[in-house]
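Q: Now give one record:
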Amino acid sequence: MGLNARLHAEVLVFRGAIAESRHRVQCAVADDAGRLQAATDAPAGVTSFRSSAKPFQLLPLVERGHADRLGCSEAELAIMAASHSGSRQHLALVRGLLERIGRSGADLACGYHEPMDAESLEDLRRDPSLRSPLYNNCSGKHAGMLALAKAEGWPATGYERLDHPLQQLMLHTVAECCGVAAGSIQLGVDGCSVPVFGLPLAAMAHGYARIAAAMSGSTAGPEPRARALQRIGRAMVAEPVVVEGAGRLATDLMLAAHGRILAKSGAEGLMLVAEPGTGRGIAIKCEDGAMRAMGPAAVELLAALGVLRPEELKALDAHRLPVVADAAGHPVGRLEARVRTEVAADIRA
C-alpha cells in the first residue's frame, strides 16, 4: 500500500546532557477506507487495543437504540467510553447509569483500583469502606456492558467472559469497524477482566478514521452505524474531562485542540486519535509500553502531522517535555521526542 510519508519517532530520556534511555515509537495514519497515509516502519505490527477500543465496545448500545431508550446524556456516553480518574463527577455518572438499570457497583466485574483523582483518593483514605469497583477507570465501560446485556435480554452473570453473547458482539463490532476478520483478532484478558483485542496498529487507525469520518458527516458506511459513531465521537469531544480527567493526556489534547480531535489512550503506551477535519485516524504506540513516553511522542507526532497547531503546543508543555526529577524533587532532566518525516509517495509498508 502506497504511503505519502514515512515517519521515524523515538523518545529520549535525558539526565542532564546524558541520553540514558530511548523509547522506540510506532505510528500509523489511515483514512476511513483503510488506506495508509503515513507510517513508521511497522504499521502491521500487532498489539493490544486496550482501552482505546472503548468507543467500539460502546457502539452496540448506541447503534441498537438502547442508549436512546435509557435517555443517555453526552456525559454518560463519554463515561462509558472513558478511562476515568475516579473523580466524584466520574463516580456519580457511573452510579446514575447503574441505578437506571437496577444495578450497583457490586455487579461490576472490573475489580477495584485506587483512583487517580486526588480528592477521591483522600475520600478513600478517610473511609476505606468506600472502596468498590466504581473507582476502576473502566467502571463506565462495564456499566454500559451491563446496560446492553439487560436491553438484549442476556444474563448479567458472566458478562465479562469471551463466551458471553455480549463479548462475542464486542469482538465482531471491533473487527467490522477496524476492517479485519473477527477470526484474525488475537485475544487476551484486559486489566478489567473483559476480553482484549490484538490488532495491527494500521487497523486501529482505520477504526478511528471511521469515527473521524462519521463525526464529520462524510462517511459512506451504513447509516445507523455512522450515526452511532458520530454520536459517540461527538460526546467524547464535548466531555473531554469525563473521557480521562484533569491533567491527563487525552483530555488535554482535546482541550488544546478546541474540539477538533478525539483522543483516547490505552494502557501500555497506546494513543488513538480521530481527526474529523481530515477524516484521518492516527494510532501511536510506544513499543516498550512506557506511558511516560506517550506524552512527548503523541504531542510531537501530532504536531508533525499537522494535527496540532503551533499555538496549541504551549498548553501541552507538561506532556511534551516532562521533567525528570531526583528523589528530593529537583529537576535533573527531561523527556524529549524526536520525530522525522520522509515524503515519498512510492514507499510501501
